[in-house]
Write a structure and sequence with these properties.
Order of helices and strands: HEEHEHEEEEE
CATH superfamily of the largest domain: RimP-like superfamily, N-terminal
Shape: elongated
Structural class: alpha+beta
Strand content: 25-35%
Largest sheet: 5 strands, antiparallel
Helix content: 10-25%
């Protein structure tokens, strides 16, 4: 039998797809009258306010009709997972291969077979995710290939790195962009 959370996930996925997005994640937080159902949606070209609004309207309608969520009042929030998005599932990790991620493990790297100097006791690190092999993440940490099962990860998120394109302007006196203009004297 399907749980209420699985029903919500199914509804959120269907509405998201209908609106040209995909369901990234959802969570129910809080208690009593302060409960919040957070739905995170994503798409290749990025999520805008209109996407969030459309998914929210579609979900509100279906959730009200089907009365899926037990326990009374709650608030619905629909948003993008953000630039430093939380990574939980294999799909999340597959989307960020080649990017830097923060990982916090529930055990040290030594228990996962790491033998490299200075990495034995590591439980937290920021590294480029090289690959996802079934349910295992592959990193190169200080020259050693480390394989980490997703099941031993306590917390993971994408590390947002600002890309800057430094171009130096030619500020020499001959530069057209920096040529001082002489003020003309007014004749009396």
């Amino acid at each position: 039998m399907e749980s209420w959370l699985e029903k919500i996930q199914k509804i959120a996925s269907e509405v998201s797809l209908r609106e040209g997005c995909e369901l990234y994640d959802l969570e129910m937080i809080g208690a009593g009258t302060a409960r919040v159902l957070r739905v995170y949606i994503d798409k290749e070209s990025g999520i805008g306010i209109e996407d969030c609004s459309n998914v929210s309207k579609g979900m509100n309608l279906l959730l009200d009709v089907e009365d899926v969520i037990p326990g009374g009042m709650y608030n619905l929030e629909v948003s993008s997972p953000g630039l430093d998005r939380v990574l939980k599932s294999k799909m999340h990790f597959e989307k960020v291969v080649g990017k830097k991620v923060f990982i916090q493990l529930n055990q040290s790297l030594s228990t996962l077979g790491a033998v490299g100097k200075g990495i034995l006791s590591m439980k937290k690190f920021d590294e480029i995710l090289e690959a996802v092999d079934n349910e295992v993440l592959v990193f190169d940490i200080r020259g050693e290939k480390i394989r980490i099962p997703i099941s031993v990860i306590e917390k993971a998120k994408l590390v947002f790195e600002m890309k800057t394109n430094h171009t130096k302007k030619d500020l020499s006196p001959k530069s057209k962009n920096n040529t001082p203009k002489k003020a003309k004297k007014k004749k009396k």
